Amino acid sequence: MVRDGKPGGDIDADLYTRGTATLLAAWEQYARRARDAAVHRLPGVAAAVVPHGPDHAAFQVVVARLEYVAAA
Question: What range defines the domain where residue 66 resides?
Answer without folding.
Answer: 2-71
